[in-house]
Amino acid sequence: MIALIGSGNVAAWIAHRLRDSKEFRIGQVYSRNIDHARRIADRVGAEAIDRMEDLSREASMYLFSVSDDAYRKLLPQIPFTMPLALHTAGSVSQQVFAGYAVEYGVLYPLQTFSENSVYEGLQVPVCLETDHLGASLDSVERLAAALSEQRCRMSGHQRTVAHLAAVFACNFSNAMFTIASDILQENGMSLDLLRPLMQQTLDKLDVMSPRQAQTGPAKRRDDRVLHNHLAALDDPIQRDIYRLISMYIQIQNDSGNEDK
Ligand SMILES: NC(=O)c1ccc[n+]([C@@H]2O[C@H](COP(=O)([O-])OP(=O)(O)OC[C@H]3O[C@@H](n4cnc5c(N)ncnc54)[C@H](OP(=O)(O)O)[C@@H]3O)[C@@H](O)[C@H]2O)c1
Question: How does pLDDT run across 84-133, given as a tens digit for each residue?
């Protein structure tokens, strides 16, 4: 039986993936808010709890998917040593479990999950950190296989680097889409206008590197357009972002940086 600690976006995906699993049954879901715990527990027929003291000692795995700073508060509340603890964070050391679990590791899903995410067809590379696993290695690998077809092993350092790269690829790209959407809306247009362009930006990466795929006024060193764009932006932060990223593109272009 698995005890799932957390009831957020990743916990919801885990519950969805394991809902029909014959081997991995989620028996308990913890959240400090019982309604949040119930929302997930009810989907998988598990018990919802809102006190760590009520965590079952019978679970074979304790799977944590909480905000990164919650571990410090939650772990000391567990009244027994867990046989096996795993977490799903990109940038929390597996050592957070030292002294609280006999075996421990990380199962980091390298994907972006939000409340209304569609899971059907979603590819989720699962990054495993396994060097503090002993007898439970096999069952953790089988759990990873139940969650995803794409799995890889990595060190803690590689995981934090992958997380850093993911922030650029996902979070920062999405911030750019947000600015684009705001600029269009302020002028009576919608982001839908850019959907083919956004899609092609990604599709081009099937046949060339991001460096080779770069286009636009910064790459062409079209100073007149750069000047006009900066003048058209009212928001000083958006102007700084435009300036800084244009400078990055120009430096990359000037240095003739080859793909590594
Ligand atoms: N979302 C992603 O795209 C993504 C992808 C890969 C990995 N991750 C990692 O997975 C983990 C969970 O992320 P998430 O997106 O699922 O987060 P989330 O949706 O924001 O959910 C966070 C969960 O942590 C709980 N929590 C927060 N502070 C707490 C505290 N002080 N004590 C007890 N519980 C607390 C919340 O409880 P309440 O319900 O009570 O608020 C909630 O259940 C994080 O380590 C994140 O880095 C996220």
Answer: 999 999 999 999 999 999 999 999 999 999 998 999 999 999 999 999 99
Phi, psi of 62 (to 5 degrees): -115, 110
Residue having the nearest C-alpha atom to atom 32 of ligand 1 = 70
What is each CA distance from 246 to 112, 147, 164, 175, in whole angstroms?
Answer: 27, 40, 21, 16
Instruction: Provide the residue type at 236 as one letter.
Output: P
Alpha carbons within 13 angstroms on the beta-carbon side of residue 188 total 0
Q: Global pTM?
A: 0.94
Pocket of ligand 1, beta carbon within 6 A: 6-11, 31-33, 36, 65-68, 70, 73-74, 88-90, 108-109, 111-113
Q: Which of 65, 86, 129 to mutate to test the pocket of ligand 1 (most atoms within 8 A of CB)?
A: 65
Both structure tokens of 185: 């809306």
- Tokens 């304790």, residue? 62
Ligand 1: nearest atom to the Cα of 33: 40
Q: Which domains does the chain possess?
A: 2-154 (3.40.50.720), 159-254 (1.10.1040.20)
User: What does the alpha-carbon distance between residue 30 and residue 132 come to, in Å, rounded to a whole number?
Assistant: 24
Are residues 30 and 47 in contact, defined by beta-carbon separation less than 8 angstroms?
Answer: no
Alpha carbon nearest to ligand 1 atom 20, residue: 8
Whole-number Å distance between alpha carbons of 14 and 10: 6
8 C-alpha to ligand 1 centroid (Å): 5
